[in-house]
Amino acid sequence: MRPAARESIRAARGHSLVTDWIELTKLRLASFVALAAFVGALLASGPAGDLALALEATFWITCSAAAGGVLNQVLERDSDRLMRRTQDRPLPAGRVSMRDAILAAAVLGTAAVVGLALRFNLLAALLAASALFTYVAVYTPLKRVSTLNTLVGSLSGAAPPLIGYAALSGTVEGWAPALFAIVFAWQFPHFMAIAWLHRADYRRAGMAMLPALDDGEPAAGRQALLYGLVLLPVSLLPALWLLAGPVYVTGALLLGSGYCAAALRFAWTQSEASARLLLGASLAYLPLFLSLVLFDQALRLSASA
User: Is 68 buried (19+), middle (13-18) or exposed (0-12) by CB count in 10 A?
Assistant: First the structure.
C-alpha cells in the first residue's frame, strides 16, 4: 500500500502516526515492563546506586519489550484481522507496512541487546535476548497450538525485573528471583481475565486460550484462583530471605488478599463483571506492589541510618 493511501486510511479512522506506533509497540504494556525493570535495577544498585544507570537499563529493557510487541503483531496479523478487538490494529488495517514494522523491531531489539551488553553486562543482554526470543518464537506461535502458551508467556513477562537487577549487579541473586516469581504468578489471573473477556474473539481466530476452549471457562476461573493463592506465599519470599520488613509483609498480604478475593469471585461467578473486576485488580496490584517494595526499602534504609 502506498504511503498516501495509508495516510488516508489513518485520517479516516481517526488515527495518527504516533498512536499507531504506540499501539504497534504496545507501549501501554511496556509501561508495566519499565516499572518492573526499574524497581529491579534500583534494588540491585543499593542505597548509593546510580539513578541514571537504573533509568538507562530500564530504557534498554523497554526497547526489547517494544520489539517483542511489534514482532508479535507481525506474526499475528492474520489472526488479528479475525478478532474484533484487534482488526483495527495498524498492521491488519494497513496503516503501517510490514517492512516498516520489521525494520523497527530489528532496530529496537538489536539496540536493546547491544546497549545492555556494552553499557552493563553480558548477563543482562543474554537474559533480554532470551526473553525476546521466547516471547516471539515460542509464545506467539504456541498460542495457536496449546494453552501452555500462558505459561511460556508468563516466563517472558516476568523477566524485566530480573534483567534490571542483573544489569546493575551482574547477578540474579537476592531480590531478582523473588521479583521474577512474584510477577510470574501475578500474570495468570491477569491473563485469564483478559482471555475470558475476549474468548469469542479467540475462538474465531483459532487461538488456544483456555477460556476459548470447550468447557474452558470454569477451568480459567480455577486457574486464576490457584495462581492468586500461590502469589500470597510467593510474595512473602523477600521477608523470609530477610530482604524486606514488616511493612512489606503487611502490604503484600493485603494486596495479595484483595487480588485473591477478585480471583475467587471470578472463579465462583463467571461473568463480565467478575472478569473486569479481576482485570482491574491485576492492573492495580503490580504498580502498588512495586511501590510497596520501594517504600519498604526506604524505611529500612532510614532505620539503619
Answer: buried
Residue 304 scores a pLDDT above 60: yes
Hey, what CATH topology would domain 1-173 get? Tetracycline Repressor; domain 2 (1.10.357)
pLDDT higher than 70, residue 12:
no
In the chain, the percentage of residues whose pLDDT exceeds 70 is: 94
Least confident of 93-97, 131-135, 158-162, 276-280: 93-97
Please tell me the distance from the alpha carbon of residue 247 to that of residue 297, in angstroms, as a whole number.
10
Which residue type, as a one-letter code, is found at position 232?
L
pTM over 0.90: yes
DSSP string, 99-119: HHHHHHHHHHHHHHHHHHHHH
Residue 81 CA neighbour count, 13 Å, CB half: 8
Q: For the chain, which residues make up each domain, given as ranges? A: 1-173, 174-305
Nearest residue to 231 (alpha-carbon basis) of 182, 162, 287: 182
* Rounded Cα–Cα distance for residues 257 and 283 (Å): 15
Quickly count: other Cβ atoms within 10 Å of residue 27's Cβ.
Answer: 16
| Rg for the chain, CA atoms, rounded | 20
Q: What is the pLDDT averaged over residues 35-46?
A: 93
- Mind listing the pLDDT tens digit for each residue in 205-263? 999 999 999 888 999 999 999 999 999 999 999 999 999 999 999 999 999 999 999 99
The CA distances from residue 8 to 4, 14, 20, 144, 160, in Å, are 6, 10, 14, 33, 38
- Burial letters 232-266, b for 16+ CB under 10 A, else e: bebbbbbbeeebbeeebbebbeebbeebbebbbbb
- Report the interhelical angle of 122-133 vs 51-75 (nearest 10°): 20
Q: How far apart are CA 195 and CA 172, in angstroms?
A: 32
